[in-house]
């Protein structure tokens, strides 16, 4: 019985050896990943996604699996502007391995993320001190692009591509922020006061222009009214003379002025007025008549 079991045991041992060997020979690489294979500690090949075989018993080994997907590292850098303001900047850098330089990406750098941070920090501390605080806020994208180009040149030799560098936040010192807010508030108050003053000025100028226009139109109305009176008197004088009345112009004018004077009194009384200023003597009416006669003669001329 024991003799019959001996071949079975041997077969089982052989199967176990084959299964163990198979696990050391076969390996699988996932999508967007590559595997670096070493033979006796020396770089042998780069395996892409899929099913692969390698030498067993430690002859070949997978040294590393490298991600080809886009990676991102974030960091915070404190630096000083040209106007001596310390600012804290949050930086986000997106990078990936160059598929044509996978070997360099693994063997030349121990920690690529930290290396990228060091280059970015050095680039920022060279660029930001040339600018004022306001310029840093205004040119944030330009600074990020300059840093990206500088770091990209450095990392290219190590097999890494810098895809994008973003400055996500610029934070000055708290006291500086408070001062900036106060300056901004004062500026807004000054602008508001200026706008109110301009509005008041416009109101005053508009009111003055309206008053001047009103006075002008009032004067035009009075002039037209007086001209109409004078024209009416001249026409009445002409009509009376045409009737053959034996009166000269001065006598006719005296009659018409008296009639006009009585009409004016009637209008004054109808409007509920109780006070009227009249010439102090006969010479006042005579003076009025003389002025009207002069106006009529000037109109005729």
Automatic annotation (TrEMBL):
Keyword Hydrolase: no
Annotated InterPro entries: Band7/mec-2_domain (IPR050710), Band_7 (IPR001107), Band_7/SPFH_dom_sf (IPR036013)
Pfam families referenced in this protein's UniProt entry, alphabetically: Band_7 (PF01145)
Gene3D superfamilies referenced in this protein's UniProt entry, alphabetically: Band 7 domain
Domain of life the protein comes from: Bacteria
Keyword Nucleus among record annotations: no
Residues annotated as domain Band: 24-184
Keyword field: Membrane, Transmembrane, Transmembrane helix
TM annotation in the entry: 6-29
UniProt xrefs under SMART domains: PHB
Official protein name in the record: SPFH domain-containing protein
Phylogenetic lineage: Bacteria, Bacillati, Bacillota, Bacilli, Lactobacillales
């Amino acid at each position: 019985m024991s003799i019959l079991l001996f071949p079975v045991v041997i077969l089982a041992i052989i199967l176990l050896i084959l299964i163990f060997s198979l696990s050391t020979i076969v390996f699988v690489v996932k999508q967007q990943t590559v595997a670096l294979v070493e033979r006796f500690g020396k770089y042998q090949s780069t395996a892409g996604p899929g099913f692969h075989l390698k030498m067993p018993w430690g002859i070949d080994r997978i040294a590393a699996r490298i991600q080809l997907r886009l990676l991102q590292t974030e960091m915070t850098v404190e630096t000083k502007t040209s106007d001596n303001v310390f600012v804290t900047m949050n930086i986000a850098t997106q990078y990936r391995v160059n598929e044509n330089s996978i070997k360099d990406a693994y063997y030349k750098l121990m920690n690529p993320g930290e290396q990228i941070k060091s280059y970015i920090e050095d680039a920022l501390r060279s660029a930001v001190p040339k600018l004022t605080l306001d310029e840093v806020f205004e040119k944030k994208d330009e600074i990020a692009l300059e840093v990206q180009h500088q770091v990209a040149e450095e990392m290219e030799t190590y097999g890494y591509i810098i895809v994008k560098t973003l400055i996500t936040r610029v934070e000055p010192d708290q006291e500086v922020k408070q001062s900036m807010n106060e300056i901004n508030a004062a500026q807004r108050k000054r602008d508001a006061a200026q706008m109110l003053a301009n509005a008041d000025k416009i109101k005053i100028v508009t009111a003055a222009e309206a008053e001047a226009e009103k006075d002008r139109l009032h004067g035009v109305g009075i002039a037209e009214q007086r001209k109409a009176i004078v024209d009416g008197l001249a026409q009445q004088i002409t009509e009376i003379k045409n009737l053959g009345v034996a009166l000269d112009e001065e006598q006719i004018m005296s009659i018409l002025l008296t009639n006009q004077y009585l009409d004016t009194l009637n209008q004054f009384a109808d409007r509920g007025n109780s006070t009227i200023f009249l010439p102090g003597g006969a010479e006042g009416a005579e003076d009025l008549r003389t002025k009207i006669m002069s106006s009529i003669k000037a109109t005729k001329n």
